[in-house]
Amino acid sequence: MNSVLVTGASRGIGRYVATHFAEQGHDVAITAIDEVELRKTAEELADLSESGRTERFLADSSEASEVRRVIEAVNDAFDGIDILVNNAGRVGPVGEFPTNDLRDWKRTVRTNLFGMVHYTY
Questions:
Q1: How far apart are CA 27 and CA 121, in angstroms?
Q2: Terminal CA-to-CA distance of the chain, rounded, Å?
Q3: Which residues span the domain enclosing 13?
């Protein structure tokens, strides 16, 4: 079986994809920034898989140091990463552009663009 790393796996598409891989018996590592949902998802995945292992990592994809920590830990736990599902992302500010806070836009770009770069570079 393969080792899989799914980012942004505490809900939505990431959770669904992680569930699919766990059901197939793969070793699955998941990341998210919501600790409560991350723990719930990891517990559900562990219950689904008879043969695969589940690891969870609280991590902000926009922070390169956190991503490096996750990659090193997954490599150690699973002896490498076969499949990366680079799913972590956030919705940008909603509303009229001039009324949005520039800090919210910067956080969105750091997560949606640099988060992808950090995991694949």
A1: 22
A2: 24
A3: 3-120
Q: Which residue has the higher pLDDT, 18 or 93?
A: 18
The Cα–Cα gap between 86 and 6 comes to 6
Residues 38-54 as b or e (16 or more Cβ within 10 Å = b): beebbeebeebbeebbb
Distance of alpha carbon 9 from alpha carbon 41, whole angstroms: 8
Q: Categorize the per-residue pLDDT at 97 as very low, low, confident or very high, splitting at 50, 70 and 90.
A: confident
Instruction: Give CA–CA dist 2/115, Å, rounded.
Output: 23
Output the domain CATH number for residue 26.
Answer: 3.40.50.720
DSSP 100: S
Q: What's the chain's average pLDDT?
A: 96
SS3 state of residue 51: coil
